[in-house]
Write a structure and sequence with these properties.
It is built from seven helices and four strands, in the order ααββααααββα. With 183 residues, it is mainly α. It has one domain: Four Helix Bundle (Hemerythrin (Met), subunit A) (Up-down Bundle), CATH 1.20.120.450. Strand 1 and strand 2 form a beta hairpin. Helix 1 runs parallel beside helix 7, helix 3 runs antiparallel to helix 7 and helix 4 runs parallel beside helix 7.
């Protein structure tokens, strides 16, 4: 397996583990606290709902890649325009540009249990690792994931996007944690 992919996966995993460690001392009540947003006149997602979103998004992404790998001959190699689009997308996430949640993603339940969400995420991550380990390197360089604003992405680009997506939501989680401290 490609060293660069291993490093990207390991970075992604370290971010996940650090996030869980930062949240595990909160009570279920704190994790499920939903601050009210006066701008849109509705409650924002709770800490655990944000994590749930990350888990579901990652799970759906892995299943999509597994499906694409059934037909490896149909995979295209991402071009320069993909590199350009993914770079813009990552910059947008860094600058906190809001993207709407894709409609196919489930709206988080009102009170998901932290332990259950973390367990599902751990299983999902193990699935991603197996997918990377078992797929030949030449196939991983093909476009196995599609994110509409960025087009088709190879595995390296997908892992980089997953990191950017995770970091984007970690900033959101930090803001929620501050609101909890002010209660």
């Amino acid at each position: 397996m490609d060293e660069k992919l291993i490093k990207s996966f390991d970075r992604l995993e370290k971010i996940r583990i650090r996030l869980i460690k930062n949240l595990e001392h909160y009570s279920e009540e704190q994790l499920n606290y939903r601050p009210y947003n006066l701008k849109v006149l509705k409650n924002q997602w709770s800490l655990i709902q944000i994590v749930f979103h990350l888990v579901i998004w990652e799970n759906v992404s892995i299943k999509y890649m597994q499906h694409k790998l059934i037909f490896p001959d149909t995979l295209e190699t991402p071009g320069f325009s993909t590199f350009f689009k993914i770079s813009l997308l990552k910059i947008g996430l860094l600058l906190r540009v809001k993207y709407s949640t894709p409609k196919f993603l489930v709206i988080p339940p009102v009170h998901p249990k932290f332990h259950d969400v973390c367990s599902t995420w751990e299983q999902s991550r193990a699935m991603l690792k197996r997918l990377i380990e078992k797929t030949p390197d030449d196939i991983l360089k093909k476009g196995i994931f599609q994110y509409p604003p960025a087009s088709i992405l190879n595995m390296q680009q997908t892992l980089e996007f997953m990191q950017a997506h995770l970091k984007h939501h970690i900033r959101q989680i930090k803001a929620r944690r501050k609101k909890l401290q002010n209660l």
